[in-house]
Amino acid sequence: MRPSAYLFRAAACRLRAHAERSTPEAVAKQIFKGDKVTDLVLRAATAPATTTGAGWADALAALSIEDFLMQIASVSAAAELIGRGLKLSVDHFASIRVPGRLVDASDAGTWTAEGLPVQVRAQRMTTGPVLTPKKLEVITSFTNEMIRQSNIEAISRALLTEACALALDKAVLGTQAGDVATPPGILYALVASCAGKAPVSLRTVASPLFNIPILESTALAATKTVIMVEPTSFASAFGAAPEFEVTDVPVFHYEDATPQNITGGTPSPAVPVRSLFQTDSIGLRLKLRGAWAMRTALPVEHVAFVSGVTW
Questions:
Q1: Which terminus of the chain has a lower count of CB atoms within 10 Å, N or C?
Q2: Which residue stretches of 122-151 are H helix?
Q3: Are 192 and 307 in contact (CB under 8 A)?
Q4: Rg of the Cα atoms in the chain
């Protein structure tokens, strides 16, 4: 069992507990009673389980957030890149100053003969990026009939991981400058260049010895773009625990591109809308806080791309 499985179990337990007017602990005992780990964590539980408060899910979430990102790496090039770069935590910090990448040999250590003094160097810290956490949110809804099915864990896992994977790839591999809502893409302010990219085709046409990892992303499929990244120059920071919230009260604007506030008017700007209470449904929201940036003042030396390839 991967650690991230308990994140999705927490979400499934919250959903079914809300539908059945029960507690997440009782639901966990009911549908996951065959799992020894769940029994061990529940033994000392004294309050409803949440990923942000006291209970069994908060401790598990703190351990499994990184695994959550790694699990979606199979469908997300950005998640795989995050796993290969510098990983930090944004918990309890409004922002984090990341040290810049040092590649100058003069900052390295020195070889020293026996009995001779070692050279002492003043550590040179280059200016690095400031990571200010942004908020990635996924909202979806389930009918009560679906929630009461035994496979609600698998359904919620698939919906949440796929939604997060698409959102991460679109943002990390994007060209946006970054704003109050979205972190900057690693291609921001870069100009397409063919230098150093043609060898990527060699894996399939020239030699099996070409061993540069190739990560695929649907976010780049339409433009036929190939990006080369130095992963150790990529830094990211995420909160230790994603937050799950459930509700059956609100009216949702079912819009995946430009959702609006639900206001009056003829017709209302928010179309279409749907009442969870009226349709006997429950809404689930996943909230994940994170940020990323390249650790170098000259990103062009660590990230490059070419568009319109014909390989």
A1: N
A2: 144-147
A3: yes
A4: 23
Question: Cα 182–186–191 angle (5° rounding)?
Answer: 125
283 close to 144: Cβ distance less than 8 angstroms: no
Could you tell me the two tokens for 25? Answer: 């602990």
Query: What's the pLDDT tens digit per position in 266-278?
Result: 666 778 888 888 8
What does pTM read for this prediction?
0.75
Please list the residues that pair with 195 across neighbouring strands: none
Q: How confident is the model at residue 185 (pLDDT cuts 50, 70, 90)?
A: very high
Q: State the chain's mean pLDDT as an integer.
A: 77
pLDDT at 134: 92
Cα-based angle 8, 13, 17 (whole degrees, multiple of 5): 155
Beta strands, E only, the chain: 86-89, 96-97, 130-131, 134-143, 226-229, 234-238, 243-247, 251-253, 273-275, 281-294, 303-306
- Calculated CA dihedral for residues 108, 110, 111, 115, nearest 10 degrees: -150
Per-residue tokens: 211: 């061993």
Per the rule left: phi > 0, alpha: psi between -120 and 50, beta: everything else, 98 is beta
Query: Could you give the CA distance from residue 2 to residue 28 in angstroms, rounded to a whole number?
Result: 17
Q: Which helix (H) or strand (E) holds 66?
A: helix 56-71
SS3 134: strand
Contacts of 283 (CB under 8 A, 6+ apart): 139, 140, 141, 246, 247, 248, 250, 252, 276
Q: Report the C-alpha gap between 243 and 50 in whole angstroms.
A: 8
What is the distance between the alpha carbons of residues 58 and 51, in angstroms, rounded to a whole number?
A: 4
CB 17 within 8 A of CB 148: no
From CA 192, how far away is CA 15, in angstroms rounded? 46
